Amino acid sequence: MRQLVTMCAAVLLLATAPLHAQHLGARLQWQPEIADLDSRLQQKVEIEILGRAAVPALELLSNATGVSLTVAPEDLDTVGERKLTIISKGLTLKAIMVQLPEALQECHWDIDSSGDEPFYLLHRNAGVEVSVREERQRRVDAWVEKRSERLDFVRQALTLSEEGLRELEKTDPLLALALQDPFWRINIEAFFALPPDFLRKFIEGPPGRMSLRYGDAPEQVQRSVDRILERYKRPKSDRLQDVELAYERMHKDGPVLLIICGKEYVPQVIIPTRGRFSCSPSWHAYELLVGIGGRTEQELAELSADRTREAMEAWKRERDMRRPPAESPLHRPYTIPSSDHMPFTDFLEAVSQLTELSIVSDAFPNDSFPVAADMRGEMPVWRLLERLSRQGIEWITVGDCLVFHHTDWYHLSQEQSKPERNDATIPRPNPQREPTQ
Known about the structure:
alpha+beta, four-stranded mixed β-sheet, disordered C terminus
């Protein structure tokens, strides 16, 4: 049934396309560097298409330019359903065509030159699913490698002498202090006493939680849990055998043990944060440095201030790598009008209006982003874009055009709404054409 619908849609598409696009001949992948052979692609375009599916969006662009642009018939139910935004303020048609695959991330243009004039089809790349799976696996492998390296390092550190631990304190003070304290050391040793299969799955899995019952844990783990409950003056449950031991996989270091007793839980960091500590010292950093390491609270405050300065300088270096030239319109100030959520398309419209830049972007139904605390108030547009990138929306500047795409575009596209075939947006008046109605 799905194939029949797709075939019917393809026939309808060809029937409504410009006359010279109705006979499909041999197709080759379009090469932008030799696009000058078709002078029509150099025309400047004034159009606004907001959050529309690719099929009607390309129809609008075709009507505005006289160039046949469509989705390949075999890709109507994939690329054809992808939504996009084009706000062109004088971009050439070629520039729009070059940036559109960058925004959608899964396609390229084919060209059919069998007719009187070439026409262009947006065609899905081969092996998209495989490429997405491989990219996700690369990210997982990177986390696994990082987690494995840390745990292997801690396992080796358990064998260090007192002199070796003092040396370790220079580079990894929290771990060194934890290994010198009996309570912390027992918990670390107990973690490595977990069943090998459990540890392997813990290391290889994504950030999240793995659990086992107290009654199923090795005796060394049970003794460690008993000491944690005793230390924090938590009475042992009458049903201790059924208490859940939840080991949280952390992005950076981990693990953290949550001893879940009914509606209550007792958290205990097993392996402390790598390096010095975060800008705002956590309770386990405070316990290790002040309670065990003998540092005064004043020394801890000074170390925290140093770490804050280091983190700020690192952030500024990273930020300045993307800082646009002084004359860029991205330095213009903007204030997000909402303190909660901002529709992404509305944001793109506002940015384009303020900066007078063109925009090409992917789009998704009900697409909005939370306005984080550091995005509120007046600030240069480029800083807002940098902070937006932390929420998974990447951006680049290409000449007078901003190009956006969601990093999780594949997952979002799978959840996309029902097909949108008959929608349309009125383009801005083209100096050389009447507005499309």
